[in-house]
């Protein structure tokens, strides 16, 4: 009979060879059972037969068997790992290419006009102003009369108003789409006592032909401050901060006399052109200034209409056109781009 030593060696060589060439995980598992299985395993059986050997032989063969067992276990593990790796490699090759760009993950964001309005509003809320909003369908009284545009006032003509067909207010006067955010001043003052510090962002409507600088729907942010001892200097301070926050630069602004029935004096506010630092360029038409908004000190007539005493309180108001701010800030020369919602345009903000 072949010495056990040689039998073990042959078994080892054969097992290692077969493990190495096993085709898959199932074949590998059956080899493990065949050689190392606890009951019928071929190595297990050899170990069982040690009982008949002398002490010396037992020791030598015992050591050798343990070595063989160790080698086979190692080989089985190694082969199992390589089978798994092959499997992964294959699936990567056939189904998943990690070098391909990932599926784009689209993030929603605010429309540029919303962003600009938020920026404007936050300049003022940081100063302690509250946000007050009003409805888009307004009464003639709030939109015009209370703002010192009596029914026959010519300034009404400058607001090409949309009327809401068949809908009238309590005084049987047709309702309208608000032509500016100024009526929120009236709503707020008639329901709150001074001091008042509010900003009102919102949508306004005018019956205008659409072109590069006009739209029949646009956006404004109204501001109103009523307190004791308010002057044009306070207005200049907050608007200068507004200009600096929105456009950078040194916050240079200038006031020009103008006319709005609900303020006296009425002014138009220019900001120093930040594209040329006031030196003059094509955008500011070589003036160094950009017309930005209307403002003024609240007309005492308006204060009286809402029940305030102009001897006790005074205030300023301003109306900022959001489109105008956004167009200057981002160098946009056609207002229609804001409403077409072309993603190539919107994605840039
Ligand atoms: N409401 C005016 C408009 O739409 C803008 C405006 C001018 C608002 C002067 C004001 C202001 O509050 O004081 O043309």
What does this structure look like?
With 349 residues, the protein is an alpha+beta fold. The strands form two sheets. It has a seven-stranded mixed sheet, with helices on both faces. A three-stranded antiparallel sheet has the order 2-4-3. The relative contact order is 0.10. The model has no long low-confidence stretch (mean pLDDT 93). Helix content is 41%, strand content 20%. Strand 3 and strand 4 form a beta hairpin. The chain has two domains: 94 residues; 235 residues, Bira Bifunctional Protein, Domain 2 (BirA Bifunctional Protein, domain 2). The site of 3,4-dihydroxyphenylalanine (DAH) has 11 residues, from strand 9 and strand 10.
Give me a quick take on this structure:
By secondary structure, the chain is an alpha+beta fold. The chain contains twelve helices and ten strands. It folds into two domains: 2-95; 112-346, Bira Bifunctional Protein, Domain 2 (BirA Bifunctional Protein, domain 2), CATH 3.30.930.10.
- Name the CATH superfamily assignment of the largest domain: Bira Bifunctional Protein, Domain 2
Flag low-confidence runs: none
- Say how many strands there are: 10
Q: Can you tell me the overall shape?
A: rod-shaped
Radius of gyration: 42 Å
Beta percentage is 15-25%
Run of helices and strands: HHHHHEEHEEHEEHEEEHEHHH
Small molecules in complex? 3,4-dihydroxyphenylalanine
Strand-pairing-aware structural class: alpha+beta
Helix content: 40-55%
Task: Outline the secondary-structure elements.
Layout: H1 4-20, H2 25-36, H3 42-48, H4 55-94, H5 112-125, E1 130-131, E2 137-138, H6 140-143, E3 163-168, E4 174-177, H7 183-191, E5 196-205, E6 217-227, H8 232-247, E7 253-258, E8 263-272, E9 289-298, H9 300-305, E10 314-321, H10 322-330, H11 337-340, H12 343-346
Parallel strand pairs: 1-5
Antiparallel strand pairs: 2-4, 3-4, 5-6, 6-10, 7-8, 8-9, 9-10
Helix pairs in contact: 1-4, 2-4, 5-8, 5-10
3,4-dihydroxyphenylalanine binds at residues 180, 182, 222, 260, 263, 294-296, 317-319.
